[in-house]
Amino acid sequence: MTTTETLIDVWRRLLADPRKTWVLFEHGTCVVLPDPTGDPTADAVEVLSRFGPVAAGSVAGDFGVIAPDAAEGWVVTGHHPDVLTYVFPDEVPDPEPTELAIGLYGRTKRGLDGAALHAVHVEDGRD
Questions:
Q1: Which residues neighbour 115 within 8 Å (Cβ) at sequence distance 6 or greater?
Q2: 89-122 per-residue burial string, b: 16 or more CB within 10 A, e: under 16
Q3: Which of 84, 88, 99, 104 counts the highest number of beta carbons within 10 A?
């Protein structure tokens, strides 16, 4: 079962630089803020409200899949370079999932986060 604590641990390993500021949303989407201007949560919500919703057949439906060394699952990218969604291996039911299946699942999670905009954790690298 995926928990917020598990997601936090994964993103800490993936974004190993402690100076990075990032915000985690409830379905596993992480918004990295290279230059936060104020409240990281407000900044991340603004980015995700624009770049989280999915529109198939447009750039908002595009995705890429990365298999990182620091975690067993996948990072699904989208049309904003700082909006990333993590997919655990057990979330995709196929024992040998294709990149398409992983990407569609991650895109769905990003869409859920883009609709709900419920931040569950903030790492503020400016501290």
A1: 52, 53
A2: eebbeeeebeeeebbbbbbebbbbbbeeeebebe
A3: 84
Q: CB-based contacts of 63: which residues, under 8 Å, 6+ apart?
A: 76, 77, 78, 103, 104, 106, 107
Alpha-carbon span 80 to 50, nearest angstrom: 9
Q: What is the mean pLDDT of the chain?
A: 91
pLDDT digits (tens, 9 = 90+) for 45-70: 999 999 888 877 767 778 999 999 98
Whole-angstrom Cα distance, residue 43 to residue 39?
6
> What's the CA gap between 41 and 43, in Å, rounded?
5
* ∠ CA 81-84-89, rounded to 5°: 145
Say how far apart CA 29 and CA 42 lie, in whole Å. Answer: 15
Helix locations, 1-127, DSSP H? 4-14, 40-51, 99-116
Using DSSP, state whether 81 is helix, strand or coil.
coil
